Amino acid sequence: MDEFTATMTSKGQVTVPVEVRRRLGLKASDKLTFTIVGDEMRVRSPRAALETVLGSIKPLPGTTTEDIERQIDEASAAVAKRRFERMSRDRLS
Prior knowledge:
About 40% of the residues lie in helices and about 10% in strands. By secondary structure, the protein is α+β, with helices and mostly antiparallel strands.
């Protein structure tokens, strides 16, 4: 596991370290999601766009909220993996 350190300003702003931006394929105006787990904070790219329409569609019979959330997490992980692989290829070329 790699760790990166940044300093928070008096206004609560933090600059995302360049290596983190490269690895995650982040650019200006990208959004980040902060999740608190116990005494740790996790930062990630927001979930896939499906999350934004969750309340506007009826789930299939027998589908639970947990099923949908799992599918969103899997889709988000796949997007992040593709982004990371693309960034890795770009660095090698």
